[in-house]
Amino acid sequence: MRKSILFSTMTCLFMMIVIGSFFVSNHDASALGTKLTLTPAMVTNETGYGDATMLVDEQTTAGDPMNGTGGSPTTYWDPGFQTGHTPAYAYIDLGQSYNLTAIYLRDYTNSGDFIVYAGSPGSWTQLFTDPLSTYPTWNAHTVSVQTRYVRFQKTSATANVSEVVIYGTQASDTTAPAAISNLAVGSPTSSSLALSWTAPGDDGNTGTATSYDIRYSTSFITSANWSSATPVSGEPSPAAAGTAQSMTVSGLSASTTYYFAMKTNDEVPNVSGLSNVSSGTTSGTATSQKLTLTTSMVTNESGYGDATMLVDEQVIAGDPLNGTGGSPTTYWDPGFQTGHTPAFAYIDLGQSYNLTSIYLRDYTNSGDFIVYTGSPGSWTQLFTDPLTSYPTWNPHTVSTQTRYVRFQKTSPTANTSEIVLYGTQASSGSDTTAPSAISNLAAASPTSSSLSLSWTAPGDDGTTGTAASYDIRYSTSTITSANWASATQISGEPAPSAAGTSQSMTVGGLSASTTYYFAIKTSDEASNISSLSNVANATTSSSGSSTLPVITNLHDSRTVANRFYVTLSWTAPAYDGTISTSATATPFDLRYSTSPITEANWNNATQAPFEPLLVQTSDFGTTKSMAVSGLSAGTSYYFAMKTIDNAGHSSAISNVVNASTTSTFSCTYSIPQGVATMYYGTSGTNDNSNIYLNAQPGDVVCLTAGNYGLIKLSNFTGTNDNPIIFINSGGLANFQSTGSYGFKILGSSFFRLTGSGSASYAKGIKIGALTTGAPALTIAGYSTNYEVDHLEIDNANSSGSQGIALKTDPDSCGFVDRNYFTQMNTSVHDNYIHNTGVEGIYIGGSHYSTSFPIGMACDGNSSDGLETLYEHSLHGVRVYNNVTDSTGWDGIQVGSATYDVEIHHNTVTNYATLNATDQRSGIQINPGTTGKLYNNWIDEGTAGHGQGINNQSRGNQVIFNNVILHTDYQGIYSKDMYDATNPAYDHSPIYIVNNTFINPGSYALQFDNVQNYGSLFGNNIVIKSSSNPNPYVNPGSTITEVTNLESTNIADAHFVNAGANNYHLSVDLSGTDMSIYGVTTDYDGVARPNGSTYDIGAYEH
To answer: Is residue 862 pLDDT above 70, yes or no?
Structure first.
């Protein structure tokens, strides 16, 4: 098994800062040290956008600007202009501490603030701000600071520095490791106690220390008596700062209280201060008793059957240890359905006991029954009973202290009709175990006077149980244990929830445009106090005229309610510079829910796609509206919105609107069978083949239930707030064509084609094209702004064409060329596509990085060469909740979709059945495409071939929470499709995180993206039973691998039931926090983390 680990970020570097003049033109060069060696490998791009190594990639060209020989470097870090890409942060790790004396920045912009900090990751102090107003020059800044890390902030996309040069002298190491503050003692036996703690760093809480000195005594340990305490042997080596560590100390006397403390050494050695002192008592020889068990103590983790039957007959069970066991007969039956076993349940005894015996009533003679102890989320197996002696009491001698006992039925027949436990109550001395320190405190959602905090609740004892209270404080400077008392205490904190629960609160009364730091301590009922949490910081928004405006007049603007959508209108804010114009990034975040929306539950509401844009300043202050579609019929919804600036900051919540859809609909027009094949949305003269409907925005065009041949709809034009609806009526509308297409829509905009018109049919429109090369559904001819849902596509022909084809090819003189047409806001969801000749779903072109393969002599003169055409872009794409099966080529293909793309919750099986070269993938992402690809189930099945995902995107992409099974070739094959002349190509990274790969034919990941910088492969589970499970990375690519499980043994992944394709985790498999990439839930929608740490793979435990 291979597990790649990224060292955790390091905090709290001791430093002394005296800042000199921020900009100087005259200085004594000899007093300012020597130029330090900087390399791209030293750079960490915190924000992840662009290539931050360009800050130091031209050190030779940069020369020695302090001594008058500075050169002219030209490459700079460009995180892009997209919303949320700035402010952007990166830092340099110098490898050891230096006394910095000067920092030179090459001004390459003449526009925008560039801010420099010193400190350590998670704890920074600003040194200076350079306004970059003297392009092209070297800007000199004298500083006096001892640090190992230097951080840089680009406040805007135009704040460009083409190189950084740093001067200083090497500092001597005088900083000791931090004193450990959370040493804990537990798990007593008669001769041992277990210790646990969090590793400090080499310098404070940064780096990795050298050794531990752990000692114990039967009296309290102080600095004065430290030397007389007994040293422990066999201590582990220190791990990276922030890592949880533990060891068991043996050879102790029974029934004895021991005190433990420790010190930490670095390589000098500098020695830390004394840790906290923790005590524990070894167990004695008290007489075991039968414990009282009730059905209310049982938690059924799997949810199937009645697990309380494990303890529902305690009186009948009697006392088997002493020979008076009875014959209980009821047992926990989770059922024989796939996925119902293995089944898990646990008992909470209410407090800790020293267990000595566990008796199981064998009621099956078949199947393993496994018993564990520990706590929810962290279990240790005690024993396995094969249940081979029915009907008897099976005794098991144990020696463990626990509050929780867990039981696993490995199969439906592993039946135990009752459980009896024996033991003694654990020491009744005072509770000395504090709650664990919170490690994921976050601050967000700024307004001019408030910030929202979120965190995961710790336990009463470590991460078990429920704590008593929180103490939350804030300050305008970073918070440490030393200055905790001087930080401002918040009032109104929530009471702690059960361990592992997500909690939040909003802190009000803050000042505008101010950075605040927050930290928490947690107390239990015995007033044990946790260590200090991580320190989170955020900045409130500006006050006055530049405060992000709040929408106050959001309203339902429909004159009559309908079944399909709710049209909302509001007044866009007046232009004041806080919100920028953009042709691609919306300044609105509109959400809806079936319950009232508040700031507290905002993140749980569903975001509506394709909110309107503010392209030019004249758009500000005008009325905006949009129809929110994809809603359920006859349902009441709540709507609210926020405004967003170009840095991703959001306003306070708008007024909340309640509006409903109706249960029924009326047809404006009905299209019967056999009357005509061409229908127009315009006015005209009808004949036998052509019908003109003169359709208006908001009209409903019904497709009467029955059988049709081919049909074509042309020139229907709705509006953003009143789309035209095409819907089946009265049952199934079945289109089976023997022509060159099945169902075609041309030259139309703002419409919805939906098969949701009949409660009897989940997919109420069925389309088939039976002719060789004929696509089933085509939407083309400049069509834009449309939705396609609840269709069944059955091409029924292995030599057919696409199931759904949504694009317009360049056809004459460049009028569909990229410069003239963009397909906007395409939504495809809840469709079933199967038995297609080629792709199941084909959206956008495949040649974004090259010219269209067919040129045309549009000027009528072939002698001067053919004009070059380029396929159009797509802005706004949603592909979700679709099922594709048995497609001749790719299941889903999306290309040329350059902005606002999400492909999620699709099931793709038995793809590429024809095994055609270059047409073999479950999902193919074609050139030009960006966005999110997540929560998809991709299974090649028995008939399919190829890769799970073929990725040819241009970057700026996150691929997460996908389950990819049994591929012939790569799980994900990602490659460059780079065109240096394409202005949209910005070398943005690709993040591939929290996916589950099962038995890929070659590599789980083959990464050939030399032109995408700063990519990541992290938190993935790769199981490949046949050979090496490691990914292949082109040597020229820059991709970081972190906390992946890559193994040939599927047992290492601890899946619940891999044989039944149940890849949920049965234990915690801790990974890295990926929330910065938008990974905040798992495949099932469960919040990440569901506990104290993020799990790896597609599922959170």
So the answer is: no
Q: Look at residue 1060 and give its three-state secondary structure.
A: helix
What distance in Å separates the CA atoms of residue 732 and residue 639, rounded to the nearest whole number? 33
- Tell how far CA 53 is from the center of its chain: 25
Residues paired with 106 in a beta bridge? 138
Identity at 462, one-letter amino acid code:
G
Say how far apart CA 208 and CA 194 lie, in whole Å: 23
Q: What pLDDT sits at residue 1046?
A: 93
Q: Which two tokens stand for residue 123?
A: 């704890």
User: The domain 2-170: what is its CATH number?
Assistant: 2.60.120.260
Q: Please say whether the beta carbons of 810 and 803 come within 8 A.
A: no
Per-residue pLDDT of 122-180, as tens digits, reads 778 899 999 998 888 999 999 988 888 899 999 988 899 999 999 998 877 778 889 99
Burial class of residue 674 in the structure, from the number of CB atoms within 10 Å of its CB (0-12 exposed, 13-18 middle, 19+ buried): exposed
What pLDDT score does 430 carry? Answer: 42
pLDDT tens-digit series, residues 360-397:
999 987 889 999 998 777 788 999 999 988 889 999 99
Inter-residue contact 845 to 809 (CB < 8 Å):
yes
Q: Is the pLDDT of residue 527 over 70?
A: no
Residue 182 in contact with residue 260, Cβ under 8 Å? no
**More confident call, 445 vs 894:** 894
Closest C-alpha among 863, 605, 612 to residue 719: 612
Q: CA-CA distance, 1096 to 319, in Å (whole number)?
A: 44
Contact 804, 841 (CB under 8 A): yes
Class of domain 289-425: mainly beta
Q: Can you give 100-162 as a three-state secondary structure string?
A: EEEEEEEECCCCCCEEEEEEECCEEEEEEEECCCCCCEEEEEEEEEEEEEEEEEECCCCCCEE
User: How many Cα atoms within 13 Å fall on the side-chain side of residue 423?
Assistant: 30
Q: Calculate the CA dihedral of residues 395, 401, 405, 408 and round it to 10 degrees.
A: -70
Q: How far apart are CA 1054 and CA 605, in angstroms?
A: 33
Place of tokens 């500083």: 143
Domain boundaries, the chain: 2-170, 184-281, 289-425, 442-544, 548-660, 666-801, 816-1101
pLDDT score of 984? 56
The one-character DSSP state at 235 is P
SS (H, E, C) 377-421: CEEEEEEEECCCCCCCEEEEEEEEEEEEEEEEECCCCCCEEEEEE
Return d(Cα 276, Cα 263) in angstroms, integer: 10
User: Any idea how long the chain is?
Assistant: 1101
Q: Please state, in angstroms and rounded to a whole number, the distance separating the CA atoms of residues 720 and 628.
A: 10
Give the domain 442-544 fold.
Answer: Immunoglobulin-like (2.60.40)
d(CA 590, CA 612): 10
Most trustworthy range by pLDDT among 387-396, 642-651, 682-691, 692-701: 692-701
State the burial class of residue 1093 (Cβ atoms within 10 Å of its Cβ: 0-12, 13-18, 19+): buried
pLDDT value of position 204: 85
The pTM (predicted TM-score) of the whole model is 0.55
Architecture of domain 548-660: Sandwich (2.60)
Give the number of other Cβ atoms within 10 Å of residue 559's Cβ: 8
Are 129 and 161 a contacting pair, CB within 8 Å? no
The CATH H-level (homologous superfamily) assignment of domain 184-281 is Immunoglobulins (2.60.40.10)
Contact 522, 530 (CB under 8 A): yes
Dihedral sign (CA 384, 386, 389, 391): positive
DSSP 3-state of 691: strand
- Same CATH fold assignment for domains 289-425 and 442-544: no
The pLDDT-based confidence of 866 (bands split at 50, 70, 90) is low
CA quadruple 121, 122, 128, 131: dihedral sign: positive
Strand partners, 1017: 992, 1041
pLDDT at 620 over 80: yes
Backbone angles phi, psi at 814, to 5 degrees: 80, 10
